[in-house]
Amino acid sequence: MQFPIKKFLSYYKPYLRLFLLVLGCAFTVSAVSLIFPLLVRYITKDVLEGDLSIALNEVFWIGGLMLVLVVIQNAGNFFVDYKGHEIGARMESDLRAELFEHIQKMPFRFFDQEKTGQLMTRITNDLLLLSELYHHGPEDYIKYLVRFIGAFVILFFINAPLTMAVFAFLPFLGAFALVFNKKLNSALGNNKQRIADINAQVEDSLSGIRVVKSFANERIETEKFSKANQRFLESRKNTYKAEAYFFNGMETFIQLITITVIVLGSASIVKDSLDLADLITFLLYITYMIEPIQKLTHMSMQFQEGITGFQRFMEMMNIEPSIKNRPNSIKLANLEGEIEFKEVSFCYGDHDHNVFVHLSFTIQKGEYIALVGPSGAGKTTLCSLIPRFYDVSGGAVLIDGINVRDIDIQSLRSNIGIVQQDVYLFSGTILENIRYGNVHASDEEVVMAAKRANAHDFIMSLPKGYHSEIGQRGVKLSGGQKQRLSIARVFLKDAPILIFDEATSALDNESESIVKESLEAFAKNRTTIVIAHRLSTIRYAKRIIVLTEEGIAEQGTHDELLEKNGVYSHLYSKQFN
Ligand code: ADP
Ligand code: MG
């Protein structure tokens, strides 16, 4: 991928003024630093070799001047260090916020493929060195460019042949730096990938720690981890090797140059074409000339991490969410709630089998239907097509006659209350979790929803009631309790279309029948789809749709279906006999 320089630079925009000030300071500091060796030269050459009685006075004056310069230099550096870093950190935080927001917009399909741990790395680690790059990058280039050019010009005036001798080394130095820099970069990129792998592995193992322990498979997990860890170690080893080559190679060049200057310089002194003060000045300035080359390449290496971070950032940012609003998408108002599947075909991926082929049916507004069928038939999938968690591969899903693809996604989803098969609760209190269904709901409304979901009693029996912390993913609650909270959450959302996907599967018979009653009361005048295994749960439904892998096998009321003696009656008799 070519480096997206324009995009990279665009992040400076909000801080441009302050940043230019920082650059101005960096420039001044470097320019001032060029003066010191000149003062040393002046002392060693003109003052000490002249009249010593005048010299003492002058040395003090020069000392005073040096003090002033030091103050300017350090005050400037202070500003550059402090504000420069701050700007970098702010920019990094801007990018991180943007990335998080972008990832939130991604559709289900994206999260089916990406590992959470990998995504975490992208949001946290990958961006860490960007702040360094953002402020040190331009600042250091200015600093070292000023020093390099300044030193070169000054040295050239002092002694042109010796300067050219030093200069002759530079192309080799540059070439060496380029080659090894490249190796280093690829090693660093590799590091990033490996650490992301480790994070993904840790995330997976720790999320499933209860499964790991129940199978006593800690050893297997540890082995998986140590493989990832080992690969990271290998990658680190390669990086250090490349680094060692790079730094020591550079060091060798610097020593070669220094030796050359000492030898040639001393020879010149012997030949009387150079004096000692000039040689000292030369040795002082030589670092000014070499340092930039050393630093610029070293910097580019340091910054390479920032650069690869930015590239990985852009990789993510360039993924367009495949499910998004069309231009002029329709905002739903006064929804009736009729749902129509029209010749819908769907498969999860190019290599997956079709879950549906030309599936058609309609659910009238306000209708309460049940969806039953063997597991894997596609019940959950069918429901996830309505809020556009996935887009159909063929045909269309229509709500009130409007293709869901033409509806504003926010508006579509705010009209659908869905209790998903896998309940997910956030870490936080019970109150917060229920209120997630409607952040504007009052405490009373939350309690009301909890009562309807038959959750109030168990919540009140907890020491802190609604303010009880439920732990990460709700680990401190039973499966049935979690389900009731997620039902309360959807009750609170108060949407005209309701989907309950095995929402009461973990409840005992008694509490299920309570929830069922309030659910049926709540469902009045709302279009409702209930998926349930326990067929007793769905008897109330005006219509039962029986879904099998071949599509809709039959539909009708409970009694009609029993009479038909088909799939449904078969399922039913298995459950009750
Ligand atoms: P049900 O809810 O009726 O048990 P699902 O809708 O969950 O069935 O699954 C229908 C089919 O789609 C199954 O074959 C399942 O393996 C497949 N499937 C479900 N979710 C995904 C997914 N995220 N990616 C790929 N295939 C999936
Ligand atoms: Mg399911």
UniProtKB/TrEMBL annotation:
Q: Where are the transmembrane segments?
A: 15-39, 59-80
**Per the database record, which ranges form the ABC transporter domain?**
339-574
Where is this protein chiefly located? membrane
Q: How does it sit in the membrane?
A: Multi-pass membrane protein
Give yes or no: UniProt keyword Membrane.
yes
Query: Residue limits of the ABC transmembrane type-1 domain?
Result: 20-305
UniProt keyword terms in alphabetical order: ATP-binding, Membrane, Nucleotide-binding, Transmembrane, Transmembrane helix
Q: Where in the cell is it found?
A: Cell membrane
Pfam families in the cross-refs: ABC_membrane, ABC_tran
Recorded GO MF terms:
ATP binding
Record-linked CDD domains: ABC_6TM_YwjA_like, ABCC_MsbA
Fetch the InterPro entries from UniProt: AAA+_ATPase, ABC1_TM_dom, ABC1_TM_sf, ABC_transporter-like_ATP-bd, ABC_transporter-like_CS, P-loop_NTPase, Type_1_exporter
Q: What is this protein called?
A: ABC transporter ATP-binding protein/permease
